[in-house]
Amino acid sequence: MRKMYSPIRIAALFIVIGLSMVVYVSALYTIQIHQPSQLDSDLIQRRIITRTSTITAARGNIYDRNGVLLASGKPSYNVMLDWWALRGSPDTNNTVLELIYAVMDEGFTYNDSFPVTRGAPFEFTTNMTNTQRNRLDAYIDYHDALYPDISVSDLLAWMRDHYRIDYRIGILDARLIIGVRYELEVRAIIGTIPPYVFASEVSTDFISYIEERGFNGVYFDTSFVREYHTEHAPHILGYIGRMTAEEYAVYREFGYPMDAVVGKIGAERAFEMYLHGVDGQQTIRFNDEGTVLQREITKVPEPGQHVYLTIDHGLQIATEHALKTQIDRINLERQEAEYNEDEDEEMELIPGGAVVVTDVRTGEVLAAASYPTFSLTTLSNDWAFLNSNPDSPMLNRATHGIYTPGSTFKMVTAFAALRDIPAITKYRTIEDRGRFTQWEDAGFVASCWIYTTQWGNTHGEVNVVQAIECSCNYYFLQVASWFRGGAEAGARTMSAAALEFGLGSRTGLEISESPGRLPLPEEKERLFPSNDPDRLWYTADSLQVGFGQGISRFTPVQLANYAATIGNGGTLYSLSILRRVMSSDFTEPVLNFEPTIRHQIEELEYIDILQEGMLAASRGNRGTARSIFGNYRILVASKTGTVQAESQRMNDGVFVCYAPADDPQIAISVVVEKGGSGSAIMDIARMIFDHYFVTESTFFASPYGQMIP
């Protein structure tokens, strides 16, 4: 009988067992000694996620010229969602919905750019941006089951199934979940979209609440938000916001991340490169439950520098107050008065206006008001209303409102005539005959304002100083017809003179501004294209330019600089709102303002004549500003203007001035749409002078004078 177990088989079995034990012990040793974490059952299925994020640099502060804080930055916390970690949640949809309600219950808002309305009936949003459209197109292209012209109902039904949203969840809550999950998935699809900021500017208490709940895929990031410390000068200060694709194409050259916040308008945009600073970077490692395991700063952020504006905050308040007070007063009087015999005819009220105050000696802008205005502190909530308001409160009328100058242009006509027409001197008089009929055969007849408002009266014989004083239309109509070379040459002569005073060109301001429009034949052709180039510019066109009508259009900042150039003796400065820039720790000046001369007018004797005429307009017996400045304690040189605007019954009012006339310090321009006349708005300038030249602010509005140019 054979043995069942031979010695050879037994030996082979022990050898196999021995080798297996060696392998097992070796593996166990390796795991226990070198990889102990693999024994932690809680970590076996856990994935470590690494994210590199930007540490936003603290944005520099903005101050007024006297160090009054206007804008600063404060730390802020953002709630971030990670797509991969959130997908690993045992109940992703309920997690998202709970987060949404948690944010709303605390009074915060969450970000949802999915372009479908949040309430029934569901439809694509009417104001869908290009960014929203591009992202939706990419999402639809990625999923084969979707097609470009899919209806909203079909899209929502598909997405509900795609995200496995329980049928017991109502459609309104389902839409909320879809919005957040879409935000996450579209970033995974495109790959170049900045990380999803679920909620911005949340409180530390809210962060503690979220951390206690232990939501999967939720982590926090820090940034800085802008805080404005004034309700005034919003058009000058500007505001900030996330970059658009067009802006990123510019700022990426300077190392900005795609989700950077940048200045949009005003000083915030103009001085972006000073204010922004240099962002830092950090690496965050967290597990798939959203618990941060490590946070490492790989690049320390550099705070932005601090900008000091030329604006005087106190004067800015006084300027805005004066403008609003007078507009409200005139509107109230118009509402209370019987407008005309036709009670059914709609009354025209003032829709807006602007005031600019500059330093005559440097070109610094001391105040710039635009009305109606808006609040930077509530801008996000008011955005839709502001942009739909027909009175355009977001428009900076001081820099982008372009207006016919009216009789304020007469100093340009006078200067050009003194230079170009030998017959025109300081003492040469022209008889005002009331009606200017020299071109009556060609169909052009104009009248002096006094002839039409005072029963056929005239100014009689007037020289250039007197013509500015009483704003004699007849004088300037006659002068405009005498320019050498004919009508077109005369227009070019007046336009060239206007440019020397800063009219019809940008002033040099760091913020955006309109160049205005000079009264040139090519401008008329652009506005009113003609097939007959030989009849492009008529004598009537030049005559209208001569007394401030026609196609001329200038901004209030240009008009203020124009008055300043006359006041300081013919020096045209570039305007500026930047006084200085300081380093982030306030230890070193980065930049200090230096006045920049754009042009120096050589014919000082002609400037003296203009100054004399403007002083007479305030102090002379026939001065159009005498009702306000005739007995004013400070010498003011001024010029009123009334603009016969098309398609409106009420004229625009324009006023320019500087003071003191014997030692000019500041210049002011005032434009009020449908203001009636320059005389009706002079109180605005007077209230500003009251504030500037006295110790205590004085906001008293005396009755304005007659409705004269």
| CATH fold title of the largest domain | Beta-lactamase
**Domain unit count:** 4
What's the gyration radius in Å? 36 Å
CATH architecture of the largest domain: 3-Layer(aba) Sandwich
- In total, the number of strands is 23
Question: How many helix segments?
Answer: 26
Q: State the end-to-end distance.
A: 140 Å
Sum up the overall morphology in one term. Answer: elongated
CATH superfamily of the largest domain: DD-peptidase/beta-lactamase superfamily
Write the layout of secondary structure elements.
Blueprint: H1 7-34, H2 41-44, E1 48-55, E2 62-63, E3 69-81, H3 83-87, H4 92-105, H5 130-142, H6 152-162, H7 171-190, E4 197-202, H8 204-213, E5 218-228, H9 234-237, E6 240-242, H10 245-251, E7 261-263, H11 266-270, H12 272-275, E8 280-287, E9 292-299, E10 306-309, H13 313-336, E11 353-359, E12 365-371, H14 379-388, H15 397-400, H16 410-420, E13 430-432, E14 435-436, E15 446-447, H17 449-453, E16 460-462, H18 464-470, H19 473-480, H20 487-500, H21 521-527, H22 539-546, H23 556-567, E17 571-573, E18 578-582, E19 589-592, E20 597-600, H24 604-619, H25 626-629, E21 637-643, E22 652-659, E23 666-672, H26 682-693
Parallel strand pairs: 2-10
Antiparallel strand pairs: 1-8, 2-3, 3-4, 3-5, 6-7, 8-9, 10-18, 11-12, 11-23, 13-16, 14-15, 17-20, 18-19, 21-22, 22-23
Helix pairs in contact: 4-7, 5-7, 13-26, 16-20, 18-24, 19-22, 20-22
Give your account of this protein's structure:
The chain is an alpha+beta fold. It is 38% helix and 18% strand. It contains 26 helices and 23 strands. The strands form 7 sheets. Strands 2, 3, 4, 5, 10, 18 and 19 form a 7-stranded mixed β-sheet that branches. It has a 5-stranded antiparallel β-sheet with strand order 12-11-23-22-21. Strand 8 and strand 9 form a beta hairpin. The longest helix has 28 residues, at 7-34. It is elongated.
